[in-house]
Amino acid sequence: MTTYDFDTIIDRRGTDCVKYDIFDSPDLLSLWVADMDFAAPPAVVQALTERLQHPIFGYTMDMPRLREVICERLARLYNWQVTPDEIVFLPGVVAALNASMRAVSEPGDNVLIHTPIYPPFLASPEKNRLHSNTVPLTPVVTDGILRYEIDFDAFEAAINDGTKLFALCSPHNPTGRIWTPDELRRMAEICIAHDVVICSDEIHADLVFEPHTPTATLSPEIAQNTITLMAPSKTYNIPSLGFSFAVIQNADLRARFVAAEGFVVPHVGVLGYTAALGAYTGGDEWLAQVIDYLRENRDLTTRTITEHMPQIIPTHPEGTYLTWLDCRDLPALNGDADAAGSEFLKWIEPFFLKQANVALNNGLLFGEDGVGFARLNFALPRSQLREALERMRRALEAATG
Ligand SMILES: Cc1ncc(COP(=O)(O)O)c(C=O)c1O
Fold first, then answer.
1. pTM of the complete model beyond 0.90
2. Quick one: 289 and 194 in the same domain?
3. Ligand 1, from 32, 36, 97, 118: best to mutate by most atoms within 8 Å of Cβ?
4. Per residue in 365-392, pLDDT tens?
C-alpha cells in the first residue's frame, strides 16, 4: 500500500494561486479559500499527463465511461441507484446552483437559504432576479464547542407563496455539520408539503468524519423533488480543473435544469473529464488517507483553540476541512470589507491578517450571523497548521492581554 505524504510543504507561490498569490508577504500562512495545500492524487496527475501527450484539445464528448463510474460509485457509497442518463455534467457547482434557481422559478420568486452559508448562496438569487428567504441556523455551545442545529418551525415559517427552491448545503459550509438522516427528512418533507424543490449542494460529501446521507436517497418521493450537486473538486483537490455533476432523477425537473443551463454554462473541458475519471477510478486510497490526516488536523485545531484561545469558540466539524470560529469577544474582528482594497482581500479577515500574518475567511460574507466570525481551513501540512494556530494565539494574547 502506498503511503501518501501530506506533511511536505509544497510552495504554491508564483503559480497564480488565489490562496497565496493575492498577498505579497512571503511568510504569510493562508488558511482561507477552500482548497487543500496537498498534491492531487497520483492517479489524477497520471491521467492528465497521459492525455497531455496528445496535442489536440478540441471539443470533447461527454465521457460515457465516467457516467458508469459515477453510478457505480454512488451505488457503492450510498446504495443509491442512479442511471447514467440521470446525470448532467457541468464545469462548476456554483453554476449548477444558479441553473437550479432558474430551472424552478420565475423572476421575483424566492429561494430559501440557511445562514450562515457559503457566500455564493447569498449572492446567487439576486443574480437570477430572485429574492432570498434566509433562515438562521441555531448556534448551540456545549462544553466550549459550537454546533449548529435546525429550527424546523422557523424553517417552515420562512417559506411563503413565492418560495420555489430550498438551496441546501449538505455537508454544511461553514458550520461543518453533516445533517442527520432525520434532519434531512424533516426538511425535505416540509419542502414537499409546500411544493419547494430542493437543490442539495453535496460538494463536501466525500470529506467527512461521520457518514453522509445524500438527500435524494431518503425516499423515492424526496428523490423526485431533489437536484443533487456533487464533484470530485474538493475531494481530490482539483477545483480549478472544472468538473462537477448534477443528479436529477425527475425527468421533467432534469429537462428544466438542462434548459436553464444550456448555452449559459460552458461544457466541461477535456482535462476536467480526464481528472475526474482518474480520481474516481484511482483515488480511493488517497482519499481514505487524506481524511485521516484531516481528522487529526481538525482535532489539533479544536484542542489548541479550546485550550489556548479563550476568546474564540470553535466548531468541531463533522465534515469539510473548515472550522468556523466565533470570535465575537474580539471587538476588532471583521473590519470594513469594503475598505479591504481589492475584491479578493474582502474575503480575508483583517485582524488575523494584520496581527498574525494568517489569512482566514472573513465571516462577514457568510450572512448577518457571520459577523464576528472567521473561517479557518485546516487542509495544510500539520507543521504549518501548528504555526498558524500559535501565531493566532500570540496575536490574541497581545490584543486582549
Ligand atoms: C458548498 C460549496 N459549494 C460550491 C463550491 C464551489 O464549487 P465550484 O468551484 O464547483 O463552483 C464550494 C467551494 O468552496 C462550496 O463550499
1. yes
2. no
3. 118
4. 999 999 999 999 999 999 999 999 999 9
